[in-house]
Design goal:
There is one protein chain. It is built from 3 helices and 2 strands; from the N terminus they run E-E-H-H-H. By secondary structure, the protein is mainly alpha-helical. The protein has a single domain, classed as Up-down Bundle (Single alpha-helices involved in coiled-coils or other helix-helix interfaces). Strand 1 and strand 2 form a beta hairpin.
Length: about 60
């Protein structure tokens, strides 16, 4: 079963194709890689920030 389940129903392959076509029409083929690059860098920053220890804990470890 390859469909995604969401509270409103099931999204099938044709619905996914329709969503992709609408996104292409709205943003254009040249803008989508730029949007994905920005999304990827934002996720990377979020992951890096969540891995860092709090500053007060680092100070306590050095004592």
């Amino acid at each position: 079963m390859s469909a995604l389940f969401i509270p409103l129903g099931v999204i099938g392959p044709w619905q996914i194709v329709l969503i992709v076509v609408i996104v292409l029409l709205l943003f254009g083929g040249k803008k989508i890689p730029e949007l994905m690059r920005g999304l990827g860098s934002g996720l990377k920053e979020f992951k890096d920030a969540s891995k860092e220890e709090p500053a007060d804990k680092k100070i306590d470890d050095n004592k």
